Amino acid sequence: MLLKRVKIPRAADIDVAVAHGAYSAVAAAYDMRPLDVIDEVKRSGLRGRGGAGFPTGAKWGFAAMDPKRPKYLICNADEGEPGTFKDRIILEGDPHLLIEGMIIAAYAVGAERGYIYLRGEYPAAAELLDGAIAQAYGKGLLGNNILGKGVTFELSVHRGAGAYICGEETSLIESLEGKRGQPRLRPPFPANAGAWGKPTVVNNVETLANVPSIIALGSDAYSKVGAEGSPGTKIFCVSGAVNRPGAYELPLGTTLRELIEASAGGIRAGRRLKAIIPGGASTPMLTAAQVDVKMDFNSLLAAGSMLGSGAVIVMDDTACMVHAAAVLVRFFEHESCGKCTPCREGTGWLHQVYSRILKGGARGGDIELLLNICGKMKGKCFCPLGEGAVQPVLSSIRLFRDEYERCIGKNGCSGASCKGMTHGKNYQMTSAESRAISNDQNSNTP
Amino acid sequence: MLNDDVRERIRLAALRYPDSRAALLPALHIAQAELGHLPDEAMRFIAEELNVPESDVYGTATFYSLIRRRPSGKHVISICHNLPCTLLGAEPLIDHLRTRLGVEEGEVTADGRFSYQRIECIGRCDGAPAMLVDDDCHGDLTPEKIDAVLERYP
Questions:
Q1: Strand A311-316 vs strand A233-240: parallel, antiparallel, or unpaired?
Q2: Does residue B104 lie within any of the structural domains?
Q3: How far from A434 is each of A153, A419, B14, CA to CA, in Å?
Q4: How far apart are CA A91 and CA A77, in angstroms?
């Protein structure tokens, strides 16, 4: 449904895309009243694919009902959650699917101006999108009087410049407005007071890419695929210790085992599955014993984690869990925007404690100290970044406390002792294995 | 330093927004593409063009990690050190890159060709370990592949 055109050569060219069905849902949507389009999306049960899983139709409804004008539609293409690359696959492989979804969404909510906020790290996608947008203007699918129906929608790309926080929608809006990307207090929510204080809908790339299918198939047919409370398909990004890392579109509710074994070709030869981060860096880890969990919003919540962005980071028995958590903590510390104290100071402290553990300078009680810092952050941060930062710490300690204790007891897991911990001191690694072992000596360099 | 062509491109970028301040990030990108980094004069130029206080331009520019305040090499290498890349050996590769270039992170090689920086996830986890050289992405890196890639950037 989402990746059907990605494998077609030159699908970023509008003629190729149109020959394979692109933009056919625009006319169908224009034959409906905007509120009926919103109702159709509500009935489909589509939930946001960026991480939070908020019902898309409801979001649109709030903005549509607000009498303020103009209204804005923003595509959140600031895909920064570590392990996530699904939006890039759409942006580079089938940009017209996104543009089609945005044309329909803009019509539904009454937005005449749209922006694609694209992360700075995707320069190739920026060029492709600019070209695709120009082609859509050329075909009368963007601009004034689209398809002769009197609808206006102007669209352009706005490039970010390297800030994970801008994936949070109010930070994204601040950044779009030309400011430091720091989050705003909510309420008011963007649907009522977003970009330049006007009603604004911010939707993830993959969310918008679902819209043409919902209109073309109808909400009933659309929602037949997927799981209870999680209709539709999801693009899962599998990375790490598997044979075929990649983006796989599967019905929500597919098991993690099926995703890893059937789609991603299983764990690398000779290794065993150890842990999985199922939804990107800010979702709690799972152990190999939980590999039969269904990959949907509710099932992952019940398993103690989250669907998040669908970024599945797979770790085998060569991975050190203390080290893995340390790498993610370093990331969150680097990306903390500095606005609120619990996140700014908390991520800094977590990073310091992990650095000394990895370097062999752990102090007695460091595990308790990590838990203590997390307790001072959890539920107390201004935005989801800080809330996400504690997840790898809390989940790795909960599931792999023995590794922390070994690390601390054996003078740290840096260098040889880390490899010793996972391989035994005299293990002669093959070149493939040595490539797989994370070398942690630079983990304290932000 | 920045000419009328840059001025015109910034002016055109500003037309896309209801408020010209929104063209600040586009302007920073345009200026950086021109100069390789953003010296104070470039920020003053942008502040005047967009009618934004200089302090705000500075505040915004320094928030974003892809906006460089220091001169870079002719080619900028951004190598990922986030978890999916680390699991597949990013750290030994970064060591290799540092040795091969003979400079530390943020420094420019003697011939001016390269500088490198560590970067957080660049969304190429399906080709981990990965790096960007300027606007090009290179994945499935090995020490040999890094050497071969560098040869392609004179």
A1: parallel
A2: yes
A3: 53, 9, 50
A4: 9
The four Cα atoms A255, A257, A258, A264 give a dihedral, to 10 degrees, of: 130
Domain shared by B87 and B145, yes or no = yes
Q: What is the pTM of this model?
A: 0.93
| Residue B107 lies inside a defined structural domain of this protein | yes
Distance between A307 CA and the closest CA of chain B, angstroms: 18
Note the pLDDT tens digit of each residue in A271-328.
Answer: 899 999 999 999 999 999 999 999 999 999 999 999 999 999 999 988 889 999 999 9
User: B119 and B90 in one domain?
Assistant: yes
Out of B22, B56, B135, closest to residue A124 by CB: B135
For A72-99, how does the pLDDT look when each residue is reduced to its tens digit (9 = 90+)? Answer: 999 999 999 999 999 999 999 999 999 9
Per the document, the length of chain B is 154
Classify A18 as helix, strand or coil.
Answer: helix
Inside any domain, residue B93: yes
Q: Kindly provide the ipTM of the predicted complex, given to two decimals.
A: 0.97
Find the domain containing B46 and state its range.
4-61
Q: Are residues B79 and B131 in the same domain?
A: yes
Rounded Cα–Cα distance for residues A49 and A306 (Å): 12
Domain count, chain B: 2
Residue A110 near residue A229, CB atoms below 8 Å:
no
> What CATH number does the domain containing B147 carry?
3.40.30.10
d(CA A62, CA A199): 9
Shortest Cα distance from A65 to chain B (angstroms)? 22
The sheet with strand A72-77 has its strands ordered as A143-146, A151-159, A113-118, A72-77, A200-204
A275 touches B: beta carbon within 8 Å: no
Residue of chain B with shortest Cα separation from A237 = B126
Whether B55 is in a domain gets the answer yes
Cβ atoms B91, A277 nearer than 8 A? no
Q: Indicate whether B134 and B88 sit together in one domain.
A: yes
